Amino acid sequence: MHDFGEYLPFDAVLHSGADPMEYHNQYAADWSKIVHEALSEIEGGDEIIPFVRSATGLSPKNTRLYWMGDQCTTYDRFDGMQSAMVDLINSGLSGFGIGHSDIGGYTIVDEPLVEKITRDKELLWRWIEMSCFSDMIMRSHPSSAPDTNYQIWDDDQTILQMKKFTEVHVSLADFKMYLMNEHNQKGSPITRALMMNFPENLAVRSVIDQFMLGENILMAPVFGDNLTTREVVLPGPTSWTHMWNG
Question: Is this prediction's pTM over 0.90?
């Protein structure tokens, strides 16, 4: 986990004498470049996968994997589970093809006099489902306060939920490898906004709660507690088959 890379203070004094405000964005690119150079100099460096959260537009050439930062343990589209999905499809359009998020989110709030934000069992389950289809790597996180939040090992049901979607993730390995190779050759995003696959369909340009895995799989995550149904946009012209029941 090659963390940080975006915290250069504006009043820093740099050895080069450069203005820290002018160097601020370049710092993120150099952060990844240094790791890329270090791995190229050691035996087995090509087998190591650093993942990074900060970048500029030139960073993908030096980075093998991204993650979407430290979302809150909520469903919302501003800094929760949905924001991780939105980040992933937007970054894919900008050349950052291989990414993922912390399953279950990271940041919690458990302080007096403010609204409490912690991870419950349902949010964790929903995030596992989304990550299976949106991410190239499935990685859980205990959060910023592990004892306060629901974990994948807390009960047998949740262990089996993680097992089920880990097995689906493994079953998609060849397809995901195909998409990664396509990304390497053409720059095509792996996790895609619907508008990329259906550019003539104006209605899907405003859809920010669904995504495509490549050209063939559409996923509509559930963003909310105690929801058993949701409306889904099925763009066309094409036909769709439900993955679970045919």
Answer: yes
